[in-house]
Amino acid sequence: MLNSFWWGHSGNNGHGIHWFSWERLSVSKDHGGMGFKSLKAFNIAMLDITQVTFGGVFGAQNPSSKVAASGVLRPGDINKVKDIIMSNCKSWDIDKISSMFDSTTVRRIINTPLFASVRTDKLVWNLEHDGVYSVRSAYNYYVNNVGNQDNSGIAGNWHQIWRAKIPPKVKNLLWRIGRNVLPTRATLNSRSVQCLVHCAVCNDSAEDSIHILFLCPRSTECWQQAGLWNQIDAGLNTSNNIADILLFILQSLNKEQQEIFSVLLWSIWKRRNAKVWDNITESNTNVYERAQHLLTSWKQAQQTRSYANTPQPIQQRTNWEKPSQGRYKCNIDASFSSTHNKVGIGMCIRDDQGRYVAAKTEWLEPILDVEIGEAMGLFSAVKWVDELRLSDVDFEMDCKRVVDCLHSSRTYNSDLGDILRDCRVILATNLVNSHVKFIRRQANEVAHRLAREATCLASFHIFIDIPTCIYDIIMNEMR
Ligand SMILES: [Zn+2]
Asked: RNase H type-1 domain location, by residue (predicted)?
């Protein structure tokens, strides 16, 4: 029924044919599908998460999870993750792990970071930030990973179609061309629909999509007039496959050319339909002007709509500001170096005149998820400020999600949730008059540079004097 709705039954131009099965339409847009709801994936996500989790969603895919081992542990081997952690300190029991698992698994386990903030074993769903299982995330995972292992999709840069700034009906046509489901006479004949074979426009060659859209003499003229023939000709020489040709041509064009190319395809196909259904012969000027008109009127409508719908965004400041009188400001940032397999953390405290108070760099390894790394940065800064016995501190960082999670009343069943809970405890007990705020990256340059520096330093540092890497920023921002 869903499929009938999509392809429709009305009209006599082949619309009654179900060109694709629903499962093929539900292949993600990256793989040439329409990204429709896959019923198979949806049922699995709703009913049977074991199929999905077996693929490694619980932990194994994401080394930051405290249950990273769950993808490889067998029931009965050990009961809980804490069974393979040293009893006297927060580190993996390497001897025990090595005696139980193969070397690859051992490496995966010991590369899973352990956080002091995480104190109990629990299952964490890695695909949601709050660590709680959701049908939506399981569904997306299945469609994008497991579901694509069948042959329903076609690899290629389909996103250039979906992201183009062109009317949706033109996108849809491009997709139909690429998936070779345009109802040309050749396609209809191949699906046992009785009809003529010759091109309706030139009445000469067989009407397949490559002919009607590109090689039909009238179409070729259109492309020459639009100045796009060279790129199209190059595309036609790369392959006999319409999807390859289409995606190749799109790739070789700039944004404006892509738009003209797309609407011209639509208009050329419209000329063919005018001939077939109404016996109207249109000139190349008709075709070109209709394409231009569609594009300009659609763009105008978009502009009017976006102007009417979007309130002017509140300007987020992009420069660092001194804290108000009597307060301190602590900027925090994390930097992620895959070369060093480390997360660098940088923090810098200044007073209400913008004068330098102190800075600190440290690092963690292995590399972590961005939000976990940023949250660890905040935790470390909050602890340090508390140790320094400072109060009235404005903490600033440029990771919005961490700041939002910190202030959220939701319970997070994840490492992030546990780390932020510890931050909240310190803030609520010893730093009651301090706040954590989000700022733009440009206003956090000092912490950003320190964090980047931290990944290259062998040890942790507390800087009493201004480090050279941030000297110019401190001087500039003090003015
Ligand atoms: Zn023709």
From this structure: 331-454
pLDDT in tens, 414-473: 888 899 999 999 999 999 899 999 999 999 999 999 999 998 888 888 999 999 999 999
Between the CA of 190 and the centroid of ligand 1 the distance, in Å, is: 18
Alpha helices in 49-151 (DSSP H): 49-54, 94-100, 103-110, 135-141
CB 229 within 8 A of CB 223: yes
Q: To which residue do tokens 């995606």 refer? A: 247
| 32 CA from centroid of ligand 1 (Å) | 27
Residue 15 included in any domain:
no
Peptide bond into 366 cis (omega under 30): yes
Q: In what order do the strands lie in the sheet with 328-337?
A: 435-438, 393-397, 328-337, 342-350, 356-364, 461-463
Lowest-confidence region among 3-7, 72-76, 407-411: 72-76
CA of 207 to the centre of ligand 1 (A): 7
Domain final residue pick, 146, 166, 182? 146
**Ion ligand 1: residues, Cβ under 5 Å:** 199, 201-202, 216
CA of 173 to the centre of ligand 1 (A): 19
Q: What is the 456 CA–ligand 1 centroid distance (Å)? A: 64
Please tell me whether residues 192 and 75 are part of one structural domain. no
Give percent above pLDDT 70 in the chain. 81
Instruction: Tell me the per-residue pLDDT of 65-81, one tens digit each, with 9 for 90 and over.
Output: 434 344 444 445 566 77
| pTM of the shown model | 0.56
Domain span including residue 421: 328-478
Distance 442 CA to ligand 1 centre (A): 57
Residue 449 CA to residue 470 CA, distance in Å, equals 7
